[in-house]
Amino acid sequence: MPFRIFLAGAGGAVGRRLVPLLRDAGHQVSGTTRDPARAEALCRLGAEPVVVDVFDAQALYRAVASARPDIVIHQLTDLPPGLAPTRMAEALPRNARIRSEGTRNLVAAAREAGVRRLIAQSIAWVYRPGTPPYAEDHPLDRPADGSRRVSIDGVVALETQVLHTPPFEGIVLRYGQFYGPGTGVDAPPAPGSVHVDAAAQAALLAVDRGRRGIFNIAEPGGPALVEKAVRELGWDAGFRLPA
Predict the structure, then answer these.
(1) Are the C-beta atoms of 211 and 205 separated by less than 8 Å?
(2) pTM over the 0.90 mark
(3) Tell me, what DSSP letter sits at residue 115?
């Protein structure tokens, strides 16, 4: 069934791979970017470009209302390519703000527009240390401190809003570390990473097949257990877009 989809973060590494998948599945996509220079590229991919900053709540409300989406997909991040260590200290607070304040604005706009399903990007490497692999119900490492605590607080804020804001069917995709086109990384940077094409496929599958809840999206053999995504979404870690 085709849907009207509002893709927040369509200009990002996952978003650029997701737009053509959604388009080819028959969905109508409104895709956001903060950078007006990226609007033409989104058009070429098959999205209706929306230039908006997630921190501008009123502009975001207007953009979502105008798009009249059935489903909102949240792929917003603010991280350097390849998670470059020299830039992460300054990037982590910005990214945590997107996950907390940005998600709050997007959730409010989606709720006001009558959206029924919200799918959001999270991360799969913030589980509390124990005996891996970790299923989705394993606790997050909330006692952590330092920069790890900054990331975890942002993740908790995002996931709480997506999963516990009625009347949404909230779906959280906990991704492994990205590699592939647009990421600055060509090979898996760690066990349990995920190619951006496979990450995009998970979001596409969640449009139709996902039930409310959390799904680990990472390559097998890493710290995150992925059987739930394979079983319930039909997700394939080896999925790649045609060259």
Answers:
(1) no
(2) yes
(3) -
